[in-house]
Amino acid sequence: MAKLAQHADFPQYQAVTRAVLAAHRDEPGALLPILHDIQERLGAVPPEVLPMIAEDLCLSRAEVHGVVSFYHDFRASPAGRLHLKLCQAEACQSMGAKALTSELQSKLGLELGETRADGSLTLDAVYCLGNCACAPNAMLNGELHGRVDVEGLLALLEEQGARA
Amino acid sequence: MSQLNQVITVYVPRDASALSLGADAVARAIVAEAKARNLEVRLVRNGSRGLFWLEPLVEVATPAGRVAYGPVKARDVAGLFDAGFLAAGEHPKALGLTEEIAYLKRQERLTFARAGITDPLSLADYIEHDGYRGLQRALAIGAEAIIAEVLDSGLRGRGGAAFPTGIKWRTVAGCAAEQKYIVCNADEGDSGTFSDRMVMEDDPFVLIEGMTIAALAVGATEGYIYLRSEYPHAEAALTAAIATAYAEGYLGADILGSGQRFHLHLRRGAGAYVCGEETSLLESLEGRRGEVRPKPPLPAIEGLFGMPTVINNVISLASVPIILDKGGAYYKDFGMGRSLGTLPIQLTGNIARGGLIEKAFGITLRELLYDYGGGSATGRPIRAVQVGGPLGAYLPESQFDTPLDYETFAALGAVLGHGGIVVFDDTVDLAEMARYAMEFCAIESCGKCTPCRIGSTRGEELLEQIIVARSEGPQPGRIELLKSLCDTMLGGSLCALGGMTPYPVLSALNHFPEDFGVSPDTAAVR
Fold it and tell me: Does this model's pTM top 0.95?
């Protein structure tokens, strides 16, 4: 097997992956829970761990890669310390989500799907947060915010950024 | 006033919508203010009543009943204490008795009977409010009688497809297999919907009870809830409720001493809309890409891990306990035609009073939009509503008198779906919404079938061209091509994602041709 270039954090990746795989040993169809657990601990599912997962689950590397790349949630590299998701779906659009998104993008100098070089902030699209009677919506590091506007979001980012 | 030495119960919702509007800060302020004033307050974090324009909705228990204040901000709390809200004192945010608020009072809350009333994580509260009565009866009457009751209720799948739940259950019950499964589809991805989320956050035991009854009915011993990852609050509530149900003998190897077992697992999705399609969901649960499986075989016969599987939406399963408790006849007394029982309607988007409205089938859009919703949030005229999520049709004002009923909507080329209504005012550009429908399909297509995978991308491009050129006069060629493409997607897609994306596109074109730069007679299709 061709030798993969090893990331400096590879020993940690290996240890985490091994522990996660062991924890899900007796669970049928556990690939998604495994990937979620790895991402929770490493902030991403680094490509370097895919061969380990594949071998453990008796899958090909291509199959594991196929699953990782199918789902929007799984990332190859960690999101920023602040991870802001802006809802782009219809209910939020009816309350101005498009204009809000473009204004915020230009104020932050960041497009949807991008992370700042210093790793301080990631901006992502999300399609429905289930708070459609209080649109437009955003989620910051897992916390839901309803009826948001640009000023409020910028203030929130500043406040949370200072805390992070 | 004896308020000083009485413990007064105050309710501040823990529902994600309430939290998104500052409910935690309100709760903290109430505790701090009570302490500073040397008042004893018992704070209950209840679910939401679903009156979202009033959230955070604070309630106080009084001898006359619960009184409401809302929407309450943390900065309002000191003033509420000054006004004596613990004794139902007058205040600009006072709403009177909660149960008397017209929006709530005029509803028929069956599935949502407890939402907002109880502490969602308290099993004692659940049982005190008629919880687990359905399961007790199910254990007493046995599998065949459970299925007969569900068939009799007329319950149809609330996820959108409206397939009779009892028939699905009967099919699975009739299969001989070593292992059968109950799968709950909690991948509520449609924009404009949140009723599943509310069940899971505001009354999680009712879903667990419904799944347990389903398991008894078909002989399943394992269950999965497939929950979308965008719902962390629902995940926390379900995790806690499932642990409690195990600890108290409502789940596990011996349910309430009956000798019957049912194990329930919670699985998190990973941000794929298509996994709300049942076969794609099963693929995902098995650890694969969420690619749609051709049907047949039906999941009821070859479902999860190839075994007979009941796969139902959250609301369908959460409606089962009350059907078992009060009987199928009680439930089917609500509704019209072949749409029996109640539908939790979600009134969302550009609407003054958005929220959850559980009503018998048959209510009209106009009643919902104006009597309940109070018109648009922006105060501008309502131009269009999209009913049934991203795959649902756009309806113009001329169709607002349509009653909510599966068959009536089908006759219009529309769907009720999961009961979500998204409201748009007169600033909406329906050609842009049609383009977005194609874009969303392109983003979320699983890629298995060509009409969906390629069609959505071509559709998006085509609509971009139409939008760019629409001010330059008619473009019959492009419109014809769009219709033809929609026809291919409608007839040739494997599942509803590709097969129904034409609904919003064609309805936008039919009802709002001016947005596409064409005259009404050119646009008319079907």
Answer: yes
